[in-house]
Amino acid sequence: MALSKRLARVGRECVACGTCEKVCPRAAIRVASGVAARVDGALCVGCGKCARVCPADVIALVEREAAV
Asked: Which residue, 5, 58, 52, 56, is CA-closest to 25?
């Protein structure tokens, strides 16, 4: 999969449930030590699967910055 113009962004209200991590096809989103999920922009393809399954509804797809 090629990188898209979009990128997943996790809000501060993340409850660190790990649901997003389980559905990511590129392992681009991780929850470590029960802290909010983090997105690896180099791996994220902007598919939106994480945003669709987030029970807290705190993941959004945003425009990727040109420097990434």
From this structure: 52
